[in-house]
Amino acid sequence: MRIFFTGGSGKAGQYAVKHLRDLGHLVTNIDLDAPADGRSLRVDLADAGQVASAMQAYADFDELDPGTGVPRYDAVVHFAAVPRIMIVPDNETFRINTMSTYNVIDAAVKAGVPKIIFASSETTYGVCFHDGEVKPAYIPIDEDHPTVPQDSYAMSKVVNEATARSFQARSGTDIYGLRINNVIEPHEYAENFPDFMAHPEKRRRNIFAYIDARDLAQMVERCLATDGLGYEVFNVSNDDLSVDLTSDEVIARFYQGVPKTREMGENETFYANDKAKRMLGFAPKHSWRDVLKS
Q1: CATH architecture of structural domain 2-185+211-239+271-284
Q2: Considering the chain, what is the average pLDDT of its residues?
Q3: Model confidence over 158-184: pLDDT tens digits?
Q4: 26-32 contact pairs (CB < 8 A, 24+)
Q5: CA-based Rg of the chain, rounded to a whole angstrom?
Q6: What angle do CA 37, 44, 39 make, to 5 degrees?
Q7: Angle between helices 48-55 and 90-110 in degrees, nearest 10
Q8: Domain named NAD-dependent epimerase/dehydratase: which ranges (predicted)?
Q9: Euclidean distance between the first and final Cα of the chain, in Å?
């Protein structure tokens, strides 16, 4: 597949781009920080003209050789964003994230791209950046949980989901949103997780969950391989908790009084990934336990 991938130089994007290229896909990295090499373009995604032009442009010199014009992209993966609050002013976070998503999906639909995948966020559930402590409405959190956040970043992601749903209704294009949990790179297990073991309260805002960057890359692969779902959103997380406590111990310390919709496994994540497994065949392979318990 020829894939237009925004944010491919970021923490999560770089793993997905490498994974997709290793599978043989032709991936164009669209990023303000993209390297000046083949299959990369530096694009301001908040500028609709730049996005439309980039999506219908050559991606590398080898595409000139057939003499048949610019090839069409088979898929768009949109990961680029201001990644959290407190990087730029709140209104800029909201503007950049909502306008870039609108521009990318709009350009993709008009270009006839049949598959669009975009990054939403765990923050949509309103826990991560809440002013003070707030508990989930129920556990485990699934895709039906209310999405009423307080902060500009999560607000932008909720708006992006509405934008994507509307474009899908108008076009019939497959558009899948990924509510990505806290992304962890392999080296961060040894660096950060011992502290999480000693201070599990530090994981409260992430719902005691995480997603290995390599498993997130697999999730993108599964979305690309699965057609015909229309508009869907999926939680993306690993199977286990990000702290060395059992599910019952986490409930006793942090979630007393929170309704539990079903029985849970001993170390099962509170950020339910059942839907992605059922509909996409998502099968996370990595765990901090493989590193710190070995």
Answers
A1: 3-Layer(aba) Sandwich (3.40)
A2: 97
A3: 999 999 999 999 999 999 999 999 999
A4: 26/1, 26/2, 26/59, 27/3, 28/2, 28/3, 28/4, 28/59, 28/60, 28/73, 29/5, 30/4, 30/5, 30/6, 30/54, 30/80, 31/6, 31/7, 31/80, 32/80
A5: 19
A6: 20
A7: 40
A8: 4-226
A9: 38
Domain positions in the chain: 2-185+211-239+271-284
Task: With beta carbons less than 8 A apart as the criterion, state whether 23 and 220 touch.
Answer: no
> Which residue bears the tokens 């500028």?
47
Q: Is the pLDDT of residue 38 over 90?
A: no
Determine how many CB atoms are found less than 10 A away from the CB of residue 49: 10
Phi, psi of 71 (to 5 degrees): -75, 155
